[in-house]
Design brief:
The protein has helices at residues 2-12, 20-36, 43-65, 69-87; strands at 91-95, 102-106, 111-115, 122-126. The chain is of the alpha+beta class. A two-stranded antiparallel sheet has the order 1-2. α2 (20-36) packs antiparallel against α3. The longest helix is centred in the middle third of the chain and has 23 residues, at 43-65. Bound molecules: zinc ion.
Length: 127
C-alpha cells in the first residue's frame, strides 16, 4: 500500500489537484450521467447527455492533473466570485466599462451614477 501511495504522491507533485469548481464539474457530470438513464427511449437525448457528462468528467480530470496551477487557481476564483454574486441578494454587481474592476452597489436604489473606485470612471446603471 505504501508504495502505491508514494507513487500517487510523486505523480501529483506540481499538479493542481481539486477545488470547488472541480467538484461542481464532477457532480454535474455524474448528475447528467444519471439523468441520461431516464432517456433510454430517446437515444438522441441520451447520447447528448452521456457525451456531455463524459466531457465534464474529462475536464475535471484534466484540471486535477494540470500543471498550470496558476491558471486553474484563477478559474476557481472566477467561479467562486460568480457564486458569490448569485448568492448576494442585497447588492448588484457591475464591471467598470473602462477597467473591468468589479463594483458592488446596493440593490433597489433606481438609476444611479456609479464611480469606479479604481479609475474614477462614471457610469449609470439601474439597480
Ligand atoms: Zn474603472
Amino acid at each position: 500500500m505504501g508504495k502505491i501511495r508514494m507513487w500517487i504522491q510523486r505523480f501529483m507533485m506540481g499538479r493542481y489537484g481539486t477545488d470547488k469548481l472541480n467538484m461542481t464539474i464532477l457532480v454535474t457530470g455524474v448528475a447528467l450521467c444519471v439523468v441520461s438513464l431516464f432517456f433510454t427511449r430517446l437515444p438522441g437525448v441520451s447520447l447528448v447527455l452521456t457525451t456531455l457528462s463524459y466531457v465534464l468528467m474529462i475536464w475535471a480530470i484534466f484540471r486535477t492533473l494540470s500543471r498550470n496551477t496558476y491558471k486553474r487557481y484563477r478559474e476557481n476564483r472566477r467561479y467562486l466570485m460568480i457564486l458569490e454574486r448569485i448568492k448576494d441578494k442585497e447588492h448588484r454587481h457591475f464591471d467598470c466599462p473602462k477597467c473591468r474592476q468589479p463594483v458592488r452597489v446596493p440593490r433597489g436604489k433606481g438609476k444611479i451614477a456609479i464611480t469606479c473606485p479604481k479609475c474614477r470612471e462614471k457610469f449609470i446603471r439601474k439597480t
